[in-house]
Structure formats: C-alpha cells, structure tokens
Design goal:
Layout (H helix, E strand, L loop, with lengths): L2 E10 L2 E11 L4 E6 L5 H8 L7 E6 L2 E5 L7 H11 E4 L11 H11 L4 H14 L15 H13 L5 E5 L7 H18 L2 E5 L3 H6 L2 E6 L2 E2 L1
Helix pairs in contact: 3-4, 3-5, 4-5, 5-6
The structure holds adenosine-5'-triphosphate and magnesium ion (MG).
Adenosine-5'-triphosphate binds next to β2 and α1.
Length: 222
C-alpha cells in the first residue's frame, strides 16, 4: 500500500469535519473521492497530503510514518522535506509562477529539493513531453491556455517522482473537451509512470473512469 490512513479525525472548533476515516491506496491506483460540497473531501486530501494535521489517527505514506496515531509525527523541516520529495499536488487553480516559463516552473520543485540544474531541466523536459507540452516550453503562464497551464502544473507536481499525486478538482475550471484531455492524462501517467493518484472531483465522468471511487458524506466514507 502506498497510503495507509487509519481513524483520521479532524474538527474545526465544534464542527467535526472528519469522523474516523480509514483508507488504503494501492500503488498505481487512480482513486476518485466524491461527495457533496462540505463533506470533508478537501480536508481529507490536505491531511493525506501532509498539508494539514489530523486531531487523531495514523498515516503511513510509502513506508514513512507521517502520523503514528499517538500524536507523534514528522515535523518542521523533516515534514517539509518529505512533502517536497514524496508528494505532488494539483489544485483547481494552477498556481504557476507568472515570471517563469513552463520549463522553469516545472524545474523549481526539483531545484528546491536540491537537485542540480541539469538533472532538473532534463526531468522537466521529459515531463512536459509526457504531458503534451513540448511545443510550449518557453511560454509563460499568461501565454498558455487553461488546459496548458494545468498540464504544466501536473508536470511540476511530478518532477520529484512523488509517491502520490493529489489533485483537488483539477479540471473544475476547464471546458468539457479540455477536461476530458486532462482526465485522459491522469490515466496515461498511471500507465507510463505507474503514478498513484488521488483525485477529489465533482465530475461524475471522471469519477466513473477511475480505478476506484469512494464517496464521502458528512465526514465519513460510505
Ligand atoms: N480551516 C477551516 N476552518 C473552519 N472550518 C473549515 C475549515 N476548512 C474547512 N472547514 C469546514 O469543513 C467542512 C468541510 O470542508 P471541505 O473543504 O473539506 O469540504 P469539501 O468536501 O472539499 O467541499 P467542496 O466540494 O465544496 O470543495 C465545511 O463545512 C467547511 O466549512
Ligand atoms: Mg473541496
């Protein structure tokens, strides 16, 4: 298992948002998490992606214990380094840096992780080819379409070969044809890289073609 999460609880004040989530994800699986607005999907994804801390529960990612269920966890620099090297994120908005072109945007997380510039550039070029953007390498985000921007964001999320790619409504801002192309890309990445991916989506079509679909309701998995 790439992800093993047990009994994850999270509250904001008196609002109990996650009520004991158990979840396992296999290597190479594309998992969809669906459910009504407010069900707790983003909160769960942020905890699985180590961006947020649960009040209770355990999380093991690719053999590393992130939270052990008794309050002990990776912290500070160790947590940030783990997240930078082992976790990739794609959000609804691309969050690309406007001053940098496509290759540079993809290279940045590799440089932050301490990889040399030559290796970072090679990996960025390889991933931009895989995501279908070889003809847009020196374009800045403002010179790219929404779908192209999201392809750069996906390449960037993959540049450090993460154990898991987390995507929160990655095609929420796109038209339906572009949406379908990006959906196909997630499965291409599974087939070519063996990429494990967890996608939160309101899109029934995407959820329907994923390897597995989990539905959340009121902080629980149905
Ligand atoms: N930082 C926070 N502080 C307080 N309440 C929060 C916080 N983050 C989320 N919540 C609340 O937790 C609940 C679940 O939010 P979450 O963002 O996980 O839902 P979601 O399933 O992703 O919904 P959507 O489909 O609309 O994105 C909501 O009621 C929300 O208002
Ligand atoms: Mg959400």
């Amino acid at each position: 298992m790439i992800i093993q999460a047990g009994n994850i609880h999270k509250s904001f004040g008196s609002l109990e948002v996650l009520k004991g989530i158990d979840l396992e994800v296999r290597k190479g699986e594309v998992l969809a998490i669906v459910g009504a607005s407010g069900a707790g999907k983003t909160t769960l994804l942020q905890i699985l992606g180590t961006l947020a801390t649960p009040d209770e529960g355990s999380l093991v990612i690719d053999g590393t214990t992130v939270f052990d269920g008794s309050g002990r966890s990776l912290k500070g620099d160790a947590l940030a380094a783990f997240r930078g090297r082992r976790i990739g994120f794609v959000f609804q908005a691309h969050h690309l840096l406007p001053e940098f072109n496509a290759v540079e945007n993809v290279m940045i997380p590799a440089l932050i992780a301490g990889r040399g510039e030559t290796a970072a550039r090679e990996d960025a070029l390889r991933l931009l080819e895989l995501t279908g953007l070889s003809h847009r390498l020196s374009h800045k985000p403002s010179e790219l379409s929404g779908g192209e921007q999201q392809r750069v964001a996906i390449a960037r999320a993959l540049v450090n070969s993460p154990a898991v790619l987390f995507a929160d409504e990655p095609t929420g801002n796109l038209d339906s044809a572009t949406k379908q192309e990006i959906h196909r890309l997630f499965f291409d990445l599974r087939d070519t890289l063996g990429q494990t991916t967890v996608i939160v989506t309101h899109d029934p079509e995407l959820a329907g073609i994923c390897d597995r679909r989990l539905e959340m309701k009121d902080g629980c998995i149905l």
